[in-house]
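In response to a reviewer's request, we include the raw inputs and outputs for one of the modeled complexes. The two entities were modeled together in a single run.
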Amino acid sequence: MGVFEWIRLIVGGVFLISGLATFFTEIFGVFHFRYVLNRMHATAMGDTLGISSCMVGLMIFSGWNFTTLKLLLVVVFLWFASPVSSHVLARLEVATNENLEDHCTVYPELKMLEEELAATADPAKQADPASSDQTKA
Amino acid sequence: MIYHNLYITVLILLAIMLFPCLVRAVRGPRIADRLVSVNMMGTMVMVMIAVLALLLDEGYLVDICLLYAMISFLAVVVLSKVYIGIYEEKRHKAENPDEDEEGGMSDGSF
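The model returned the following structure tokens for the whole complex.
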């Protein structure tokens, strides 16, 4: 193998192994933290940095062809999809957890604002529990 | 030959790292824990498919990787929406139990 082949192997291998290390850190974080919203913090890192490093390493191995373009497309899609799915999961957790205050701070100003909103709203809406929940989420 | 061994090693490491995700998906105390770990497994399987595409020298496997990303994203979003809807409906039914069945779905939580 020539010099350029060795350089390609080493640079791509470093990217690929650093992606694997990021995945390992992700798993460590998921087992280290105690609550879902903290665990989500660790998994978001693997969804963006881990898969990007792995895909950049594979792109360097692949060279200039359509496979490289499609690997780039996977990374770009995940950049858009991962924040959206994290947001939806956080909404699920906040909407379904009865005692959220045990795990994280819910700001008192926000709670006062909600009570004001519930007081000023018309009594038909105040009786409906689902509409007041939607303003919270 | 070096590339072949590197790809095989990466695949084995990723396959080993899938098991802790499975453990978290089984043990997770809340439903969001399970969905987070399923999302994590999806990311790792995407890398595995991409490595396999280069190992077998079959470019079309990367298309399957892209499809896998889209379906995994869709699964997480749809399951979250379904669980939020189930929870709202259950709580609505618990707060006013004298209402009939048609009233339960009318608050538009989906």
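As requested, we also summarize the result in words. The mean pLDDT of chain A is 83. Chain A has two domains: 3-98, 107-137.
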